[in-house]
Each structure stands twice: as structure tokens, then as C-alpha cells.
């Protein structure tokens, strides 16, 4: 028999059990990612909090064009992104949560109209999902920390990976080499 003194504890335990059952086993509040190290390359694998916001907060932070791509899985028009012809040394970060995603050393001219890379900054920083929208099967790429839509990866890239990570400029923020090293030293 549950006495009225034990009732709050029993209700709390029941609520915790219910909430645990509602959260998928693979869904946690943290993700394992690589941040920028002191030399501008990937640092050690660290646990980082997922970035979760309401749609209204994302739209306020990103603005309409970036929100349409990062949160609503849109695509910017080819040959008009501001990072397509960027040839400076540095790192491309997620416009949603500032996670390092691609280094300039893996960028190449694909002729597709979007910035293209043959490998990510760190494989853990990118999440791949099967995308069967638009009557074809593709592999969507997302930022691991905030879940922002970045673009797609295709198997028609150059050596050494044979991959082409096709990105939307509006989903990225570029930082030059000096700024990246300064961030890594902090």
C-alpha cells in the first residue's frame, strides 16, 4: 500500500520511467565531435552538447535564407553561393552551431555550382542520412551537433576518397587560417 507520504516519490519515479521510454536509446544530449586543435587541425574527440532550439529561435538566429536551407532542408541556387569561389586557407564551420565541418585543403572545383569537398574536417562532425526525396536516392549530410542540413555527398569525387560533399554556402561560415589557429589555442 502506498501511503500519502510516499506518493510524490512514486509519481516522480513513474514520470522518469515514462520520459525514459519516450527518448530513443540512441538519442542523448551530447555528441562526440572534434573541435579545432591548436594547430588548426581536428583536436581530440570530445563530448559536446547538442544544439536544440525552437524553429522561431533558429529563424531569428539564421535569417530566412539560411533557415530555409539548414532547418527546412532547402537548396540554394547553383553558382550564387558566396563561398563557391573562396580559395583562402581555413576552415568552414556550421552556420547554425559553429562546429568545424570542412577544411579548405579538401575543397575542389567540381563544376556543379556548389562548394565541394572530398572529405570532412572530422568524420564524426558529419551525420549521413538516406534521402529518397525528389525521385532519387541520395545521401544527405547534416551537422552532427545541431542537425542542420548542409547538402549531400556523392560518390563522384576525386582521390583520395572518391567522394564529393556538395554544400550550400549559406549553411557554412568560413574562418581564415589565422583565426582558426587562434580559436584552437583558446
Describe the structure.
By secondary structure, the chain is of the alpha+beta class. Helices cover 22% and strands 30% of the residues. The chain has 4 helices and 11 strands, in the order αββααβββββββββα. A 6-stranded antiparallel beta sheet has the order 5-6-10-9-8-7, with no helix packed on it. Strands 4-3-11 form a 3-stranded antiparallel beta sheet. It starts with 6 loop residues before the first helix and ends with a helix. Mean pLDDT is 88; it is low at 6-25.
**Helix and strand succession?**
HEEHHEEEEEEEEEH
SS field, number of helical segments = 4
Query: In total, how many beta strands?
Result: 11
Poorly predicted runs: 6-25
Helix content: 10-25%
Percent of residues in beta strands? Answer: 25-35%
- Radius of gyration (CA) equals 20 Å
Task: Summarize the model shown.
The chain has four helices and eleven strands.
Write the layout of secondary structure elements.
Layout: H1 7-22, E1 30-36, E2 42-49, H2 55-62, H3 64-70, E3 90-94, E4 100-103, E5 107-108, E6 116-117, E7 126-131, E8 138-143, E9 149-154, E10 164-167, E11 172-176, H4 177-185
Antiparallel strand pairs: 1-2, 3-4, 3-11, 5-6, 6-10, 7-8, 8-9, 9-10
Observed structural traits:
three-stranded antiparallel sheet, 30% strand
Amino acid at each position: 500500500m502506498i501511503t500519502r507520504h510516499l506518493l510524490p516519490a512514486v509519481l516522480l519515479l513513474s514520470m522518469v520511467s515514462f520520459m525514459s521510454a519516450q527518448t530513443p536509446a540512441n538519442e542523448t544530449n551530447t555528441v562526440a565531435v572534434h573541435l579545432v586543435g591548436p594547430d588548426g587541425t581536428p583536436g581530440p574527440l570530445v563530448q559536446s552538447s547538442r544544439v536544440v532550439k525552437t524553429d522561431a529561435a533558429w529563424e531569428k538566429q539564421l535569417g530566412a535564407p539560411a533557415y530555409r536551407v539548414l532547418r527546412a532542408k532547402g537548396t540554394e541556387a547553383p553558382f550564387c553561393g558566396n563561398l563557391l569561389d573562396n580559395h583562402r586557407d581555413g576552415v568552414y564551420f556550421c552556420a547554425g552551431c559553429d562546429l568545424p565541418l570542412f577544411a579548405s585543403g579538401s575543397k575542389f572545383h567540381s563544376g556543379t555550382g556548389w562548394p565541394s569537398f572530398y572529405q570532412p574536417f572530422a568524420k564524426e562532425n558529419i551525420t549521413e542520412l538516406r534521402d529518397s526525396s525528389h525521385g532519387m536516392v541520395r545521401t544527405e549530410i547534416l551537422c552532427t551537433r545541431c542537425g542542420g542540413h548542409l547538402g549531400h555527398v556523392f560518390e563522384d569525387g576525386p582521390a583520395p576518397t572518391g567522394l564529393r560533399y556538395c554544400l550550400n554556402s549559406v549553411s557554412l561560415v568560413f574562418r581564415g587560417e589565422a583565426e582558426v589557429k587562434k580559436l584552437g589555442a583558446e
